[in-house]
Specification:
Keywords: Metal-binding. By secondary structure, the chain is α/β, with parallel strands linked by helices. 28% of the residues lie in helices and 30% in strands.
Length: 364
């Protein structure tokens, strides 16, 4: 198995097109065509993790956080990022990161948090826009079903929990084949009128090349007429944070103690309690203060995330209880997610979970 087989499996679950503009997810070091000797899964690709990969004969480290986040102008070992880069490259260790793209997919990092709290009826808190495309094409009526089926097989036509969604309209197309053409219907050099079906489907942007290829391979015409249009619609399955409901309401103090236990954190920083039961819960892995207003607008009683600054706690304004569980603690289940993705795709391949606890924060 090659490294690209493993990274492609992760990218199929969390497409790189879903990462935020500031992010640096993907293959950071290494050659995708290397044979994979082993895979080590971690939250952070630290020096100790690279040492562990060497000791356990793994030449691919899959991390949540990109060790190279901003630009590297020098690589001379003056800080831990440069030392990781040097050690990984010298020892032929590939490093791959799935960061905000893994945060933004519906069954990603936030879903792992939600499962710890057994939340029900979850939905994306802040869906992303402009990730959907619509394809219009024109097909002879007798071939419309064949083309639809090919487009569906390539991943087009999903709307929420529904699949094979399309729209069709009947009309008449005209064309005149020039010199050297071999038209599917009609004769070259003569205007032809053909009863056609207009087929419309939507698809996520990362599937565009596959959808277009399916169209061209299944369409009978030499020259296929089609349009791809960017949609501004929110994509309900992709975005930041989740909001869901507890099975039963809990009083606030009991809820916070339970959150502390479930996330195995040494400290939960929280805003003043409101004296109201907690039923609806919003959450976001990592630094999530940017979603606080969304959590309030969603009617959440509590918001679980990390990295809130002092003045940001005031923004709760007694409308919600903020529970800051810590950055590492909110994302620690990502290793389990990586493991699930890879073992489901490759049942006979065993990725290894790092034994290094990379959390740089300690509690007394």
């Amino acid at each position: 198995m090659k490294i690209r087989d493993i990274t492609n499996a992760i990218a199929a679950f969390a497409p790189l097109q879903y990462q935020e503009s500031y992010d640096n997810a993907g293959l950071l070091f290494g050659n995708p065509d290397w044979e994979a000797t082993g895979v080590l899964l971690t939250l952070d690709a630290t020096e100790a993790v690279i040492d562990e990969a060497i000791a356990r004969k793994c030449n691919l480290v899959v991390a949540h956080h990109p060790i190279v986040f901003g630009g590297l102008k020098k690589i001379n070992g003056n800080n831990y990022v440069e030392r990781v880069a040097i050690k990984a490259i010298k020892n032929d260790i590939a490093v791959y990161a799935a960061h905000t793209n893994l945060d933004n997919v519906r069954n990603g990092v936030c879903e792992m948090m939600a499962r710890k709290l057994a939340l029900q009826h979850c939905r994306v808190l802040s869906p992303k826009r402009e990730l959907l495309r619509k394809l219009y094409t024109f097909v002879p009526q007798a071939d419309a079903e064949k083309v639809r089926t090919a487009l569906f097989a390539a991943g087009a036509g999903h709307i929420g929990a529904y699949s094979e969604c399309s729209y069709s309209a009947e009309g008449t197309g005209t064309f005149n084949g020039g010199e050297g053409t071999n038209p599917y219907v009609g004769k070259a050099g003569e205007r032809h009128h053909e009863a056609e079906t207009k087929v419309e489907v939507i698809f996520p942007v990362y599937l565009e090349q596959y959808v277009i290829r399916a169209l061209l391979d299944s369409h009978p015409y030499e020259e296929v007429a089609y349009d791809v249009v960017k949609l501004e619609n929110a994509y309900a399955e992709v975005g930041s944070g989740l909001v869901g409901e507890l099975k039963e309401p809990m009083d606030e103090e009991t809820f916070l103690r339970w959150v502390k236990q479930q996330f195995d954190t040494g400290c939960v920083r929280y805003t003043p309690l409101r004296g109201k039961p907690v039923k609806k819960v919003a959450l976001c892995g990592g630094a999530g203060s940017f979603l606080l207003k969304k959590a309030i607008s969603a009617g959440a009683d509590a918001y679980i995330s990390a990295d809130f600054k002092y003045h940001e706690f005031f923004d709760a304004e007694n409308q919600i209880v903020i529970a800051d569980v810590g950055h590492f603690e909110s994302e620690q289940f990502t290793v389990e997610l990586f493991y699930h993705i890879l073992t489901e795709k490759f049942p006979n391949f065993a990725p290894l979970k790092s034994t290094i606890r990379t959390n740089p924060v300690n509690y007394l």
